[in-house]
Design a protein that fits this description.
Blueprint lengths: L1 H11 L3 H23 L2 H17 L10 H22 L1 H9 L1 H5 L6 H10 L3 H13 L3 H8 L3 H26 L1
Helix pairs in contact: 1-2, 2-3, 2-4, 2-8, 3-4, 4-8, 4-9, 7-10, 8-10, 9-10
Length: 178
């Protein structure tokens, strides 16, 4: 952890090599989380790029009491939440994804990934962010609380709510395909 903080100090001084090392260390982890949140590899790649740009631009403001990973996840989740908000304002896209072209004429069950993705879309945004960080990267409750700026109890309740909603939604989808 100390080495990563030293890396951030070098990034803050404009060291592009250190920034490259940082990006290499975290790209795949951030991409996995963004992919789960946004549902599209292209959107996830864009979000990770934006997060790294914000990291580089704001490196001087990095607080070394935070783990570098916590700081990067916080930036990334904020970028992803912003994208999800932008999507929510596009009602035409929301209507299309809620109806889903696959559900109208295709009565065969979609594959498990599509079911999971659609079910995740029904989970509230904050719970979805926490679920992705917890189960894609295995972050602790304390890390999640620091990343999202909420209490550990709020993390626990949001995760429980998100899991219950996800379980119910997947149950509905499974029952309809049997």
């Amino acid at each position: 952890m100390h080495a990563e903080r030293g890396l951030m100090e070098r990034v803050a001084k404009g060291d592009q090599g250190a920034f490259g090392d940082l990006a290499q260390r975290y790209s795949s982890k951030l991409l996995a989380v963004a992919g789960r949140l946004l549902g599209s590899r292209a959107d996830a790649e864009d979000a990770v790029q934006r997060a790294f740009l914000q990291c580089y631009a704001g490196a001087a403001g990095y607080n070394p009491q935070w783990a570098v990973s916590t700081w990067l996840y916080r930036i990334l989740t904020n970028v992803c939440v912003d994208e999800l908000r932008r999507r929510a304002t596009r009602t035409a896209y929301d209507e299309r994804s809620a109806a889903g072209p696959l559900s109208s004429s295709n009565h065969r069950p979609p594959d498990a990934y599509l079911d999971l993705h659609r079910a995740l879309e029904r989970v509230p945004r904050e719970a979805r962010v926490l679920l992705a960080l917890r189960y894609v990267d295995g972050l602790s409750y304390g890390e999640l609380a620091r990343i999202r700026g909420i209490t550990i109890n709020t993390v626990k309740s949001q995760l429980a709510r998100g899991k219950a909603l996800l379980r119910d939604e997947l149950g509905k989808r499974g029952a309809g395909h049997e």
